[in-house]
Design brief:
The complex is a heterodimer of chains A (about 260) and B (about 240).
Chain A lengths: L3 H12 L2 E3 H12 L7 H13 L4 E7 L6 E7 L4 H5 L5 H16 L4 E3 H6 L9 H13 L3 E4 L2 E4 L1 H6 L1 H7 L17 E2 L6 E2 L1 H6 L25 H6 L31
Antiparallel strand pairs in A: 1-3, 2-3, 4-6, 5-6, 7-8
Chain B lengths: L18 H37 L3 E2 H7 L8 H16 L1 E6 L5 E6 L14 H15 L4 E2 H10 L4 H14 L3 E5 L8 E5 L1 H6 L2 H12 L8 H15 L1
Antiparallel strand pairs in B: 1-3, 2-3, 4-6, 5-6
Classes of the chains: A alpha+beta (about 260), B mainly alpha (about 240).
């Protein structure tokens, strides 16, 4: 039996299934009328998961590939038949959605431009450009996709709940060899090709755990044209999403990456 | 002769030896499997109700029978009862059934959400819904569509933009009923409150909303205030 506060929080999560850790702290404070101390947020998630088990729902968390912050998502733990039939998207919209997912996972940057998404409507029956724009807005509002500076990428919700579908859309999709979570925004070791998150390999000071080669920089394998804005943004140590760093477009740099400036060696 | 239970999941032939023992254990397994599957069926039904509730669409019994694997006429009542208990215990939703015959359900929220924790889009559609319901109520329960379009227009909601919302979505969500006025040419429609509106909102709530729009305290609405008051007293008595 859930307490009133737990019911309130669960109802909120039905409405907004994806929340950051900071959001969750605010939600806790709204329901319990005080700040959550230390482990209380984790305990909350644990107790909610116990309550959610009979419904085959669960709150999972992982780090966001853009800013390395922890996000929580209320997801479906089963491939629910009924859920498939009550999809919020029309068949044409769903076709666009799958195309967007496929483009995202097959790219290194883990993103696709929103303009390309809209233009894809030419290849989908019963979908005009206006429909495509509306569909894209729907995908953003329902927290499956993010858009920043014209580039569309996956939210943590999509990474957590759609993993089986994503792996079907691209057979090469792998987990990051360091954190073992799905790596959609990835970099590959120039020596052995193993795939990692930028944050993960940066933490290991660019030494590949598979072949032990130390990369010269995170940019080694990318040509300047591949440096998309999302890659630039993910290198900032400031988690605030409203800031766009003024990074010198300097291409290859020797020595440690931007991330390592705080560490001594 | 050995008993074989009325198993839907007949496995391959049991061996000759200890056939009756095997039949008993396979019956036990079958019952255990039915119980495990039932949990899964209940989970699917719970999820279906929750998804439909987000859209505010009523759930039809026929759709549940069609879409949820493992549900049957036999286990329907049990499954719904379990789902009902769960939805109340964990989410604070009351499962309400309209019309025992054709059977459709909505979820009614029993939980008061704190103001700084929004749980639905308090958006334009909600405002338009309340405006329409108020207009119907102030018209003693039935109002012609043209008056509704006029009212919305005056308040800045262009009818062309919201016709589908009012005549299609709200009707599907059981908030509003449409009736074609007989012998009207071109056909015009009357609006009345739908069953969901009757269950979900009190007349007092709607009157309070209308009072704000008209800048007049609810008590000054004469017979309508009396109606709202009577309804309140009837609810308390139950």
């Amino acid at each position: 039996m859930a307490s009133d506060q737990q019911k309130q929080i669960l109802q909120y999560l039905l409405y907004k299934p994806l929340v950051s850790l900071k959001d969750l702290e605010k939600i806790y404070a709204a329901a319990y009328e005080r700040q959550g101390r230390g482990e209380e947020i984790r305990d909350l998630v644990r107790s909610l998961n116990d309550l959610l088990k009979p419904a085959q729902l669960g709150i999972k968390s992982r780090l966001c590939e853009d800013n390395n912050e922890e996000y929580f998502a209320l997801i479906n733990m089963i491939e629910s038949e009924a859920a498939k039939h009550t999809s919020e998207f029309s068949p044409a919209e769903f076709e666009l959605f799958k195309w967007v997912l496929k483009e995202i996972v097959s790219s290194e940057s883990g993103s696709v431009s929103s303009i390309d998404c809209i233009n894809q409507s030419s290849y989908i029956q019963k979908l005009t450009k206006t429909d495509a724009q509306k569909a894209l807005d729907k995908f953003l509002a329902s927290q499956w996709l993010n858009e920043r500076e014209g580039e569309v990428s996956l939210t943590v919700r999509a990474l957590l709940e759609l993993e089986p579908l994503l792996k079907k859309l691209d057979e090469d999709l792998q987990n990051c060899k360091i954190c073992n979570k799905l790596a959609v925004k990835k970099v590959a070791c120039p020596n052995c090709g193993a795939k990692f998150h930028r944050y993960c390999i940066s933490k290991l000071k660019l030494k590949c755990p598979a072949c032990h080669r130390v990369w010269r920089s995170l940019e080694e394998e990318s040509t300047p044209s591949q440096m998309s804005l999302s890659q630039t943004l993910s290198q900032t140590s400031n988690p605030s999403t409203s800031q766009v760093p003024n990074r010198r477009n300097g291409g290859i740099r020797r020595g440690r990456s931007h991330m390592e400036s705080d560490d001594s060696e | 002769m050995s008993r074989r239970g009325s198993s839907q999941k007949q496995s391959s032939q049991p061996s000759q030896r200890n056939q009756s023992q095997k039949a008993n254990s396979s019956q036990f397994q079958q019952t255990a499997q039915e119980i495990i599957d039932l949990d899964r069926v209940v989970a699917e039904v719970i999820q279906y109700f929750l998804i439909m509730e987000q859209k505010k669409f009523p759930v039809k019994r026929n759709d549940v029978m069609k879409l949820v694997p493992g549900i049957s006429a036999k286990n329907f009542k049990t499954v719904i009862a379990q789902a009902q208990t769960y939805l109340d215990d964990v989410f604070g939703y009351l499962l309400h059934e309209f019309d025992e015959k054709s059977g459709h359900y909505v979820l009614l929220n029993q939980v008061i959400m704190p103001e700084n924790l929004p749980h639905q889009d308090l958006s334009e559609s909600n405002t338009i819904l309340f405006l329409t319901l108020s207009a119907i109520f102030l018209s003693e329960g039935c109002i012609g569509e043209d008056e509704v379009w006029n009212m919305l227009d005056i308040l800045g909601y262009k009818p062309e933009n919201h016709k589908k919302l009012v005549t299609s979505d709200f009707v599907r969500q059981l908030y509003i009923n449409l009736e074609v006025i007989p012998q009207s040419d071109p056909p015009r429609m009357n609006f009345t409150w739908g069953e969901r509106a009757t269950i979900e909102f009190t007349k007092k709530e709607i009157l309070a909303f209308a009072a704000k729009i008209y800048g007049q305290p609810p008590e000054q609405f004469g017979t309508l205030w009396n109606l709202a008051d009577k309804e309140d007293k009837a609810r308390e008595a139950n």
